[in-house]
């Protein structure tokens, strides 16, 4: 009996110890699991905060990137920048504010790509009232083309400000994108060809041309819309009111003598760096002309006929979407403006005047535009 009692007492103590051990083990496991879970959550939060700090640091460094941007420009640009004296540049805009209107860059920044400004690779140099605005808006549909929104007039009005000033008027681009600028008066300004050559002799030049008589009337129409008491077209285009002598000093007539201006450009640039776009065909078949432009610039043909529709009321092609707007729209109320009635005799005399200059232009370009 005594032995049995001792054995039962021993068994009871053993069971109690086992129960305590189990409870202690479970408790330890619970605390260990909780600790590890908290540790992992803390590490995750630290990594997220680190990524945010890196992104902020990237944006901050991009804001402070001013003079270093030019050093990262294409070698062909920077090699000629010393030919023009630089003056103080306007206050640099922050990258964040400048890129707010370009959603594509908001996606690129977290990936470590830094947009920067560059001198233009390509210039639309003319001709005024031939379709330069349409060309710019159409080619800007391409994701690899970035263009200054307004005419900068650097080479004809602001050249003394220097290339640094000019570069600060260009849009931000990333590697592989083309920077473009449009100022139609470049084509007819005497000093511009040499100045562009000094900036970059490899610059590609786009020139939109149209029938010089129609161009002159369009030029006059634009001016008359801003001046109510302007003389009639026939009075301005001819000397002493007679159709026998054309006034070649009048701007709208003078600009149409394309061959004279082109000869200046060919002194500095080979014909292979110039592309001539038909203003008439740009209206009737924009996809064809934009296809030629994309080929000339070495771009994939992204902009096609699916991007355009013809507005019968304006008699002008419009866009289903653009870089700034995702809805269908035309270029503006000033495009496709109705021309005033011009005496047919005056038109015929102007055609006779331009004919030899047109033929010379055909010879220089190797293109017969078949103007009347």
Automatic annotation (TrEMBL):
Positions annotated as active site in the UniProt record: 129 (for sulfotransferase activity)
Entry's localization field: Endomembrane system; Golgi apparatus membrane
Family: Belongs to the sulfotransferase 1 family.
UniProtKB keywords: Disulfide bond, Glycoprotein, Golgi apparatus, Membrane, Signal-anchor, Transferase, Transmembrane, Transmembrane helix
Domain Sulfotransferase: 120-355
Disulphide connectivity of cysteines: 318-330
Transmembrane spans: none
Full protein name: Sulfotransferase domain-containing protein
Main location, first listed in the record: membrane
The keyword tRNA-binding is annotated on this UniProt entry: no
